[in-house]
Amino acid sequence: MIEEFVFSHSASISVTRRAHVGVVASGDLEILLQPAQANASVLVKTNVGGHQATWRALFLRFFERWPYAVSIEINDHGATPGIVWLRLEQAIELAQDRSGQS
Amino acid sequence: MIQFPSMASLSFQELSPRERLAALFDDQCYKEMVGPFDRIASPWLAQQGLVSQSDDGVVVVRGRIGKMEVVGVAIEPKHEGGSIGEVGGAKIASALRWAASSCLPGRPIAAVLLLETGGVRLQEATLGLRAISEIHTAIIDLRKLAPVIAVVAGPIGCFGGMSLAAALCTKIIGTPHGRLGMNGAEVIEQEAGPQELDASDRDLIRQVFGSEARLRDGFIDALVEDQAASMRAAVHDALNSTRRTPTKLENASKRLHDLRLDLAAAPVGSSHFQPDPFGKTETVLHRVDRGRLWLETLSGGKATSTLGTQSVLTAEVSLGSSPADTAVAIAISRDPDSLLPRAANGELGLEQAWTLAEYLRSFILGEQRCVNKRPILAIVDSPGQAFGRIEEERCISVAAAAVVDAYAAARRSGHIVLTLVVGKAMSGSFLAHGMQSDHLSALDGEDVAMQAMSLQSIARITGRTLAEVEENSTTILPMSYAIRDAHRLGLVDAIIPGIWTEAPTEYDSNRLRKYLSETLASLRHTGPPPRDLDDNPHRQATVAVRRAMQEQWRAFDEAVVRP
After folding, report:
1. Which DSSP symbol is given to B123?
2. I need a surface site. Which of B166, B212, B522, B559 has the fewest CB within 10 A?
3. CB–CB of A30 and B53 under 8 A?
4. Is residue A41 classed exposed, middle or buried when 0-12, 13-18 and 19+ CB atoms within 10 A define those classes?
5. ipTM of this model?
6. In chain B, which residues have their Cβ closer than 8 Å to the Cβ of A70?
7. pLDDT tens for residues B358-380?
8. Residues A28 and A75: beta-carbon distance below 8 Å
9. B345 pLDDT more than 70
10. Which of B26, B51, B79, B80 should one mutate to test binding to chain A, selecting the residue with the greatest count of A CBs within 10 A?
11. Cβ B54–A1 below 8 Å, yes or no?
C-alpha cells in the first residue's frame, strides 16, 4: 500500500521557476518542484513503505547542502537513494535555468 | 542538466516523451496542454496500491511543425507500460476533438501521435476501453480535415485498442525497434498456450510484430532509422501527404478473398490448435449462442450468414412502421468449423472483421441515395478478439480498425447505429463491433459483462494473483465485469431490466423491440443526447480533463494569433 509523509527544513535560496522531472516507473520517481518562501517542504508518496528514516536522512543532508526554498512533491516507485538525490539535483537545476522549458 | 551536443543525432526511441516532442516540434513554439502541474492524476491507481503520475503518462502539446499547426501526443512507456487510463485517454481524445473543431478552411490542425503503449490500462479496464473508443472516433473525425500521423518507435510497441487507433491514422511511421499488433505475445501465450506463440522467442516476435514485417505487408507506411533528425523528416513528409484515408483499411473483400485462398492452400492443422489448453472455455462462454438467439428472436426469422462467413450473422428487425425503420441487425456468432480455429467461439477474428467491414461498406453504398437511412443494430455477445499467431501475422489490428472505420462511416452518412449487449462485451471485439454507436443499451443480468480482458490475462499482465484481480473486480468500479457497474460509470446508456438473457419469451421480444423503436425514434427526432458526465461522481477526472483542455486550448488561441 502507498505510504505518504511530509518533511520540511529551513531554506533560504530562492529559485525562479517550477520543474518537473522523472517518471513513476520501476526504480524511478517523479518530482514536481515549485518555488516557495523561506522553507523547503517535501510531500512523499511511495509504494515501498517502511523507509521513512532513510528518506528523512537523505532530505536532511540534501537541504543542508542545497538550502533552496522549494515545495516538492514526490511520486515514488521504488527509487534508490542515489536516484532520489540525482532527481532532486536535476529538478533544482531546471528550476534555476532560465533558458529551459517549464 | 546534461547538455547534449545535438539532439538531431540521438536515438529517438530513447528520448523521454517530452524530449521526443521537442525533437519534432519547431523550437520554442509549442506549449504543453493539461500538464503535470494541473495535477489531474488517475483516481483509480491509488485504490489499488499504485502510485499515480501527475500527467497520467500522457503528454499533449500544441505548436508547429514546419508550416503546419499540430497537436502532438506522446505516451510514456515506462509508466504502467504506456497504458491508457481514464485521464490519459481523455487527454488524447479531447485534444484531438479540439483540433478537429478548430480546423479552418486552409488552416488545418494536424495531429502526431507517438504511440508507445500496451493499450487499455488493465487497472482502469472499462474506462480505458471507452477512452480508446473515443480516441478512435476523434481520429476518424480529425482525419477528414487534417493528417493524423502515428509513430511507433520503441520496443514497447503499440498494442491492444491503440493498435486500432494507429491503423485509423493517415500514416504509420515505424523504426526498426517498433512493434505493432493487437494482442501482445504474452497475452496470446496466456490465452492460447505457448505452442500458439512462444512469448520468449524474441526473433519470432520481431518477425510477427516488427516494423520490417509490417512495412513489407503494407500495415505501416514508412520505416525510418531510429534517429531524431530522421524521424522529424519522416513526420514532416507524412504531414504533407494529401491522401488522408489510410489505404490499408480498404479493399475488405479482397482481403477476405486472399485470406480464404491462403488458408485453402495451407489449412491450419489440428496440431497448430489446441481448442482449450487450460480447460477454461466453459467459464468463458455462455451456454447459448446469444448473438444468434437474439438476432432470431428480434427478427422473428432465421439469421443468415454473410459473405460466406458462417459466424457473421445478419437479420432484419422492424423498429417502426416505415421501411426505413427496418434495421439491419448484425451479430458475431459461433462457428466450430471456422477457417481459423481461434475464432470458433464467437471471437472477432480476421475473417469476421473483414466480413463485417465489407458488409457495412456495401450496406452504406446500397443506401447512398436514400433520404431516410436504415438503422443498424449491433447485437453483442463475443468473448473478445481472436488470440492467435496467424491473426497477428496478418495484422488483425488493421482488420478490426476497418470495422471501426466502417461503423463510423455508417454513422457519418446518416445511419443510426444502436448497440444491444446481450452477453459478453469484451475488449477489441467490442471496440470494433458495438462501441461505435449512437446508443448503447444492455440487457440486465449477472452474466452480461463488459471488460477489457479475461481475469487470467489481467492477472498475468499486471503481475498480480488471480485472487487479487478477482477481489479488485468486485471493489474497483472500472475493474468490474458487471454491466450495471459500466452503467454507473456512464459507459452504457441504458440497462433493460427483467428480460431473460437465454430464454426470451414473446413478451420479452416485443418489449425489447418497442424499447429499441422508441430509442430510434427519439434519436431521429432529437439526435443523440450528449453523454453528460458532469453529475457522475465516478467520472470527475474525465470532467476535469475536458475542462482544463478547453481552458488551455482557448488560452493558447488568445495568446498566439493564428496567421
Report:
1. G
2. B559
3. yes
4. middle
5. 0.93
6. none
7. 999 999 999 999 999 999 999 99
8. no
9. yes
10. B51
11. no
